[in-house]
Amino acid sequence: MKTISMERPLSQRREVFPRLRSLATLVIFSAVLLCGCSQESSALTTETDESPNTHGLQFERRSNASRLIVFVHGFMGDARDTWVHDRTQARWPAMLVGDSAFADADVAVYGYSSSVFEQSFSIDEVADNLRLRLTAARVPTDYDEVVFLTHSMGGLVVRAFALKYRDLVEIPMIYFYGTPTNGADLGNIASLLPGSKQAEGLQELEKNAFLQSQNSQWLASSQHQEIRSYCGYETKTTRGVTVVPRSSATALCNQRLDPIPENHIRMVKPASKNADAYVTFKVAYQETFERQQITEGQRNIEISTSDFSFPNDGNVLVADRLTISVQSYTAPPDTLIVANSVEIRDGSTLRGSRLSIVAGSVIGGAIDVSGSRGDDAGELLVAGGRVLGTRLIAVGGAGIDGADGADGPDGSAGGPGAKGRCDGFGRWRKARNGGNGTAGGDGGDGENGGDGGDGGTVYLVSLAPPAVSPLVGGGEAGEGGSGGRAGRGGPGGSGGRGCTGLGGAQENASSGTDGLDGRPGRSGSSGDPGRVGTVWIGELESLADIAQHIPPAAEIVDYRTDIVERLKGAARAK
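Above: the chain's sequence. Below: its structure in token form.
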């Protein structure tokens, strides 16, 4: 009997080892990018500590509050380091405890095992464990509602929990930071790690039966409409890679989409209470639980065409959520918009001469009250809990360029002199001189350029130092018109030719004199540039500082002027 060796020749094994090393390197790199650890350089730390410091539900504050905020980390994260800023050592859950805006809620952090090198729960199993930990901590009986703040895969865990245990706790809102709702490219690679059931759930949607099922269930459930779902997406790369693309990070959200100017790992590590990530959650929280203080009982409105009309052809629009998706929309004069949230889609612009927007949040796009053709810019008031990623423009119109002077007409040519005649004795005629050319006309003077319009006035009121810089420059000066070209003098006519014949030889006649050229026109003077406008910025403590100026929706039209002037005063006062 022959013995068959299962061992490959040495040459083949040498070919396999480099491939394995390359695969391992690629997988480890992907794991680094997908992790939620506090230090990018220590992303591969293996978590084996089962102590309460890393797993389970840990309370930052537990009082008699009726609401609980729970932090849930992502793939390879943990209950502490995921939320800690590496330079300031600020820790997000602890920051909430010290913020009076969250005084009505207790705060807890949920941690679970998530490791590259050890077998761990699947995403569904983590959701089951979350139910266990919440129940063990008597959350369903001690709290009326639970708010979740999630990072990366943590959002998928919470969505699975909400679907499976919808009757366990009331969930009014979830904030998803960098959650791969439609999967992540790097999840395809990380899923090759042995025993990584969590990474399998992060693969792209087309290859991911788990995400396909979760998305379908979420869209079919009442939670899709009842739970206010906010999304934040990374705008910076992690080691050259966008870990979770915007399209995946914002899928299934029914509230605003917030750009976070950090990479995937650092987007949930706010350095202070003024950091974008912190403020986006704070504003979302206040919108959810104080939103009736801005306006209530209103419907969602979308401006998707340029001919949209305000109610009753007026200049006041009140909405719960206002979305502007048309490329350019010009509002009526002296417009006032009051809404719980205003989202201006990328590439869209709200225009007008005098605009006032009062909202819980104003996100994206541009608001433009600039002048045109030398006109002064208008006036813009934006009062919101958060103004994020919106370009505020109040630039004076550019001065009109002066018209160029007309060119001078060219002079006409002199006529030719008559030719001499030598037809016979006694019948001859001397050649005549050519006619003189006429002078060319003067060029017309250029017109003066127009003055540029002055920049407008912007009043900006928000909860935190604004992340936008309004543009209020004066319009450029119009250039003076160029002087017209001088007319050229007409050429003199050619002299007549003499002849030689019976009458004898004759001389040729002289040509006429050329006309003089005209004078060129003078150039017009340039106009003056417009003056720079004014920006007033007021920082408020809470949405209540804005909402106190807003009457019931039915009375907003009657008090439009009072609302605008009071909020402008709030900007000037601070």
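The two ends are 95 Å apart (CA to CA).
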